[in-house]
Amino acid sequence: MPSCIEKIEAPEIIKESMIYSLNAGGKRLRPILLFATLHAFGKDEKLGIDVACALEMIHTYSLIHDDLPSMDDDDLRRGKPTNHKVYGEAVAILAGDGLLTHSFEIIAKSKELSDTLKANIIAFLAQAAGPSGMVGGQVADLLGEQKDLNVEELEYIHEHKTGKLLRFAVVAGAIIAGASKDQQECLDQFARHLGLAFQIKDDILDIEGDVKQIGKPVGSDVGKDKSTYPKLLTLEGAKNKCNDHLTSAKEWLEKANVESDLLLEIADYIVNRDH
Ligand code: GRG
């Protein structure tokens, strides 16, 4: 993927900054989900390569902007200095902007997809990433920092901030594969539950990671800082909810009637991962 960035006619510094974050060690979960969905329909993964790259670029832009001083103000991401710590705030903002806009160019120029499919996927991705999707979730998250949230409000944030792109990954794979409307709906529900399980697991890992790294007793963070599932439900309650979403995800996957081996493996990985 970064080789396609190198070819862009642009000042070296912006390309370097974009490639820095793209290569900073992300799990590539969204592209993997898209490829696994194509696999579930017996389709060549190559069909989804441009959309998968575009999706990872949008995810990467969101993390660069999320880390900025005006947002979460983080110094480290994936154990490495955040983009703005290396390149400065202005270049980091522009690297995010560059990744976002370039992602749509990649899909528009894809040689793998028909024009109709490209137009549909671009509209779907813009919706998933934009104000009714990830951007809206991020805004709700910022507003929610000023108050105690209930589970419904927390769910709204996560369904939008992280859920919409995860759902896009699976449903875009299904659309490219030529899935029926019914299969698309089942896989969308699969991804919705998987996204919630992913987020709850993330909250659980935040607590258990602290225990491993600095020896805080389990549960000592529950109740501090911003609203999380363990804070609202207890650590045990959050683990149960995570498993419930995994079970629901698997039920919807079964209903989709596809070759589900890889998608099942990913679902189990999401809930059992340790980082
Ligand atoms: C700035 C518009 C805008 C949106 C930011 C996704 C997001 C929205 C913020 C991320 C905040 C965060 C750390 C949420 C926790 C769960 C999560 C989405 C983690 C990052 O996704 P992974 O684990 O990341 O797939 P990697 O590093 O593997 O690519």
TrEMBL record:
Gene3D superfamilies: Farnesyl Diphosphate Synthase. Belongs to the FPP/GGPP synthase family. GO terms for molecular function: (2E,6E)-farnesyl diphosphate synthase activity; metal ion binding. It comes from the Bacteria. Its EC number is 2.5.1.10. Keywords: Isoprene biosynthesis, Magnesium, Metal-binding, Transferase. This is Farnesyl diphosphate synthase. The keyword Magnesium applies. PANTHER family: FARNESYL DIPHOSPHATE SYNTHASE. It is an enzyme of class 2 (transferase). GO terms for cellular component: cytoplasm. Its cofactor is Mg(2+). One of its GO terms (biological process) is terpenoid biosynthetic process. It catalyses: isopentenyl diphosphate + (2E)-geranyl diphosphate = (2E,6E)-farnesyl diphosphate + diphosphate. NCBIfam families: FPPsyn.
